[in-house]
Amino acid sequence: MALHLKIEEKEGYQKILSSENSDLKFLSFAIIKQSEGVFEGNTEKEEKVFVITEGKCNFYVEKNLIGVMKRKNVFEEPPLAVYLPPYYKYKIEFEKKTEICIIGCPGKGTGKPKFLNSKDIKFRRVGEETYFRNIADIIPESFPAEKLLIGETINDPGNWSSYPPHKHDKNNPPEEYQLEELYFFKIDHPPGFGIIRIFDETEDNLFVIKNNEIVTIPKGYHPVVVIPKHQIYYLWALAGEKRILKPYTHKDFNF
Description:
This protein has a single domain, classed as Jelly Rolls. It has strands spanning 4-6, 12-17, 28-34, 37-42, 46-61, 64-71, 81-84, 89-94, 98-106, 114-116, 122-126, 133-139, 148-155, 160-161, 166-167, 180-187, 194-199, 204-209, 213-217, 224-226, 232-239, 248-249. The strands form 4 sheets. Strands 2, 3, 4, 5, 6, 7, 8, 9 and 10 form a 9-stranded antiparallel sheet that branches. Strands 1-19-16-21-13-12-11 form a 7-stranded antiparallel sheet, with no helix packed on it. Strand 5 and strand 6 (64-71) form a beta hairpin. By secondary structure, the protein is mainly β.
């Protein structure tokens, strides 16, 4: 069942989602909001991707500086990220108010640490009519991750995305490969809002989306829309046994 959660506006580390409190088998999501000082952690049994949404910090891996992460906000500057395999120690030094999203997935430790600057990320303009959006592929299929696929989408004002409605919850190659997903949302001018519908033959969920909220998509079609004169942003993460993104479009909207 899809979940809809609000991220708390508080300093420090928040563990939001895991297989223990959701229907997601692979994905975990945490967030750090910190203005100064240091945060230290270990990826443990998960490959993890750290995506900065605002602020500035220095990112260290095993005591070595891997990169400086700096971003005004998600609507005005492109993403920066760090990929870490399992069992790596890391340290983040904060220079100003900063927010970092951490997406994880169980792994074996086959990859290597990587700092992803904007030049390492593919940007796409997709859609037509009233469903134009901009996409940044942070961890695409070509990246040597184990299970994760990660990116960002920003709708044009008042536009739809994840449209036409599609899903990826069954292994039916070559038409569809099973991947679970989560979305972390922001609105460019709160208290603006968007809507996501997550549905299939057995369930139909409609969520009103406001700033700093997260939705899980364990299955089903999942189109998104934002109100006029507002943009909606979402960080998306997918995971599955096979890292192949081949969505299946709903037959009623496939024209």
